[in-house]
Design brief:
Blueprint: E1 3-7, E2 18-21, H1 29-32, H2 35-41, E3 46-50, H3 68-82, E4 87-91, H4 93-101, E5 110-113, H5 122-131, H6 133-142, H7 152-159, H8 166-175, H9 181-190, E6 202-207, H10 215-224, E7 230-232, H11 245-258
Parallel strand pairs: 2-3, 2-4, 4-5, 5-6, 6-7
Antiparallel strand pairs: 1-3
Helix pairs in contact: 3-4, 5-6, 7-8
Length: 261
């Protein structure tokens, strides 16, 4: 059973629902803190799903055996539950899932926040290994992948900007959870999206102070979709939680309005 947190309802101004998809080691809570209430107040029906084994979503299999295909099934299921063909908005691994979703689905729009690029996660993973080799080795060996993020110091370095208030960083670090190394690292390195023929409008956003996904990788994602990336100054990887989150949400709203959504 998938946890889906929902706020707001369909309105004449915004008739298409929004589905938010979290990244690795997170769950639907990362959208509930700020984004869901904001978009509900703007007249959207805003929903966030926790992928199987995350948050309060159950799983019939151990988290380490979950694949990207399993997570994609969750996205497809959640899309059906919230309205059939919602706008999809994904962060990090959630952005990679959207790229896989676009192979066979045509949502009215998609937004990628600090997304894993179409070229995969390998370079980002190697940067973490170089910075924290022993922590990364331990996390991979014992299956506790969140240990590369789950202290305030590591979360600030990888997920937030140098100026993010400490309480935001600490609260996020405390809620991170293990993820599937198979899905997040292996599948994101070798089961890359096939984007030929994608016609869905895509907005690509990133943070200039992102310690996980480089600015170059954000630009590579935008280039793959024939668009231009937009980078937010003083913003880290967790764009929906960092102190400038409202600027990001406002940009998404403006873009969707320009599409008549």
């Amino acid at each position: 059973m998938l946890e889906i947190i929902e706020k707001g309802s369909i309105s004449a101004r915004h008739p298409v629902p929004l589905l938010f998809i979290h990244g690795g080691c997170h769950a639907a809570w990362c959208w509930a803190d700020n984004f869901l209430g904001y978009f509900a107040d703007e007249g959207f029906r805003a929903s966030a799903v926790s992928l199987r084994g995350h948050g309060h979503s159950t799983s019939t299999q151990p988290i380490q055996s979950c694949s990207m295909a399993d997570y994609l099934d969750d996205v497809i299921s959640a899309a059906g539950q919230v309205g059939g063909n919602p706008v999809v908005i994904g962060h990090s691994t959630g952005g990679f899932l959207i790229q896989k979703y676009l192979e066979n689905h045509r949502p009215p729009a998609a937004v990628l926040l600090a997304s894993t690029p179409p070229q995969g996660i390998l370079r980002a993973s190697m940067r973490i290994w170089r910075k924290h080799p022993w922590t990364a080795m331990r996390a991979n060996t014992i299956g506790e992948s969140h240990e590369v993020f789950n202290t305030p110091a590591l979360a600030r370095q990888q997920l937030f900007s140098p100026d993010t208030p400490e309480d935001i960083v600490r609260r996020c670090a405390e809620r991170l959870e293990p993820d599937s190394l198979r899905a997040v690292f292996v599948d994101q390195a070798f089961r890359l999206p096939k984007l030929d023929g994608v016609t869905t409008p895509v907005l690509v956003l990133g943070g200039k102070e992102d310690g996980t996904i480089s600015n170059r990788e954000v630009h590579a994602t935008a280039e793959a979709f024939g668009t231009r990336a937009e980078l937010f100054p003083d913003m880290g990887h967790n764009m929906m939680l960092d102190s400038g989150w409202r600027d990001v949400a406002t940009r998404i709203t403006t873009w969707l309005q320009g599409l008549g959504l």
